[in-house]
Amino acid sequence: MGITSSQVRQDFFTFGGFGLQGYGYDVELLCREIGNILGLGIMYQMVIIGAGNLGQALAKHTSFEKRGFRVIGIFDVSDRIIGEKISGVEIMHIDSLAEFTTQNHVDIAVVTVPYAYAREVVDKAVGLGIKGIWNFASAELKVPDDVVIENIHLSDSLIVLGYNLKKKGRETDPSAAKDK
Amino acid sequence: MGITSSQVRQDFFTFGGFGLQGYGYDVELLCREIGNILGLGIMYQMVIIGAGNLGQALAKHTSFEKRGFRVIGIFDVSDRIIGEKISGVEIMHIDSLAEFTTQNHVDIAVVTVPYAYAREVVDKAVGLGIKGIWNFASAELKVPDDVVIENIHLSDSLIVLGYNLKKKGRETDPSAAKDK
DNA sequence: TAGATTGTTAATCGATTAACAATC
DNA sequence: TAGATTGTTAATCGATTAACAATC
User: Which residues pair with A69 in a beta bridge?
Assistant: First the structure.
């Protein structure tokens, strides 16, 4: 992964030593400790807001549950799909989210609504006491200090890829060898 | 977005000045220049490899095309779905990718296959001369120097979110106020 | 001129890397 | 003891921030 041994030791050192000088690491113990630090033992409950292509794809993605992230509800505004089930989880109307949160503990809201609604949806989730936001809308959203947000900006990632492609192409092109 | 004016000026400076001291920036010109640097005028052609939930969701995502990234082919191994069309683009068998690339210019391969096949698929794409990889498999893949790879690690992002939630929870919890 | 704004250099900060002591 | 490996500090590197000169 392109990480130096120095960096590994330095990172472990931040959380206290896990090995024995001159002997090595007990890999099994080390993995367990890192898992504990990352909180991999915890099961988080998620709701997906926005049952479009991406929302449904994430709901069907089975590997999140293995890592401790379970989808317990999907919400949308489109009457056409409300009532349907995705991987055994019902699509409900966004208006019933408030009631849902009183009956179920929700750790994370997955925001897969269009850009224009992201702000509103996040405010609603935060207002209902949800402390984690996994945001797929291409918007930079402000949240209160006690709320954690993690962004997946797909378009940004594509643009970076395109930029690097363009740059790499120029480097290879001898007619533009001078600029780096 | 939490960026200082210093950082904005420093970043612009890297590419040469776009403004006029004491006067300001011509915003329209500036946007155009940044667009040129990022290569937003270019249209890139993409193939999606892996027509599962995520692959299909990305194929249906209309906003990429607006940014200059067009899906021109979808590939999979499942006979059940080959021949189907997603947003007007046909799902083809992965074995026909080689022929496809001789008839169509492909800039980017979007890899949405399971972890176990990612390595193989990327090697194949690179072998066919595709210079850009947009990787959604949770694998750290090595590519040759002239190939650009951009990763979207969804599980990593979720784990970071979970870790920050856990940390924030501890900070709020007065019984564990000491560790930071 | 006075105020405002950008260009450019210098200072600061944080993360990565190197070095070596402390072990087994 | 010799070789190997981790813990911990110091040096290096790069990015962010601050400062101020150069304008309009």
Answer: A44
